[in-house]
Amino acid sequence: MPLDPYAWIDKSLDTLHRADWYRSVKSIEGMAGPVVTFDGQEVINFASNDYLGLAGDPRLAAAAIEAIQTYGTGSTGSRLLSGHRPLHEKLESAIATLKQTEDALVFSSGYLANIGAISALVGPRDLVLSDQYNHSSLKNGARMSGAALVDYAHCSLSDLRQQLQEQRHRYRRCLILTDSVFSMDGDLCPLPEILNLAEQFDSMVLVDEAHATGVLGSGGAGCVEHFGCRGRPLVQVGTLSKALGSLGGYVAGTASLIDFLRNRAPSWIYTTGLTPADTAAALKAIEIIQSEPEMRSQLWNHVHYLKHQLDQLWETGLPAHHTKRLPSDSPIFCIEVQDAAAVIRVGQQLRQLGLFVSPVRPPTSPTSRLRITLMASHMRSHLDQLLLGLKKTLLMP
Ligand SMILES: *Cc1c(COP(=O)(O)O)cnc(C)c1O
């Protein structure tokens, strides 16, 4: 018998199953929205990043259809060769206007935007300081850059300062990386203080606004706006795929930064331009975000209501002692549970009650947790059903 050089794959899969870390795709049928059909069952959707409900908005669909009819389905080449369309430019200028930056550059995904920006900004002679809970795309961008990579404790300014004091002088450039809204926790980074430290230690800052764009800030521009940090020197990255209901990513910043990335970011240079449909849908979403702030207010009404109700529930002391609420300042709420097996079990129980909540496990997050996300298009009754479901599944017997 010849040896099978692929046999290790099945062994690896077995290990994942044994640790309750195995994951597989699940099918959602029909239109995106606050109520979806999951495995044939109608469920209230608390597992989507479509915070404003724009992914199912007919105005985005109409814009996408019109773009396809005008330009076709594919953009047929990389942006520097034959893939650049006037639509891309319109979208980039709309992003720059929203963010109040000089310019912006659209990538095929947020993941590619992070990888491209980070590996263009730093190299082997440089230092990257990264929040330990940062998104995978920030961590992998830092690895790809070849820079020395040091994690600092989650949102810890004292640890960040200490790392800067000990390490900064040994390197040419330094880049601090942080999510603005932490995707698997829901808390916010202390952005103004991070920028102060960066200034003090001659360091660049890249902030990932994936879960903040369209959600935070009075104009929906994100955490940078929320914290009053527009105009400070920083690199903003984000996605078109969450509150903007489309697909793609972007970097926003100074004109020279964007010009540099167009020449030095391989994940932008050597990939096909964003499709006309995705580009047009994102452009329409930005228009809506700016003209309909009431969507954002509705989302925040839901956030405050759920937060208040969860506070009350936890004050009763009734939730089982191994469950813990994580601090949140966003539409992302996380409830930590004992372990991976428990989070899957509770997730299934909630689903039987018609509630679709994501069970998140390592390595996506450091501990197992239920991740609940709210949408502007939820109704108050949806939230009440969620609260009832959490009471049933999390309270001590
Ligand atoms: C989702 C996400 C990304 C990736 O964006 P995509 O457009 O989905 O590739 C990057 N950073 C953070 C923090 C995210 O949550």
Question: What features would you describe in this structure?
Answer:
The structure is a single chain. The protein is α/β, with parallel strands linked by helices and 397 residues long. The chain has two domains: 32-56 and 293-394, Aspartate Aminotransferase, domain 1 (Alpha-Beta Complex), CATH 3.90.1150; 58-291, Type I PLP-dependent aspartate aminotransferase-like (Major domain) (Aspartate Aminotransferase, domain 2, 3-Layer(aba) Sandwich). It is 42% helix and 17% strand. The protein contains 14 helices and 14 strands. It has helices spanning 7-18, 58-71, 86-99, 110-121, 136-145, 157-167, 191-200, 223-226, 255-264, 266-269, 276-291, 293-315, 340-352, 380-394; strands spanning 28-29, 35-38, 41-46, 103-107, 127-131, 148-152, 174-179, 204-208, 235-239, 249-253, 324-325, 332-336, 355-360, 369-373. The chain has a seven-stranded mixed beta sheet. A hairpin with a 5-residue loop joins strand 1 and strand 2 (35-38). The radius of gyration is 22 Å and the shape is globular. Pyridoxal-5'-phosphate is lined by residues 109-111, 114, 135, 137, 179, 183, 208, 210-211, 239, 241, 249. The site of pyridoxal-5'-phosphate has 14 residues, from helix 4.
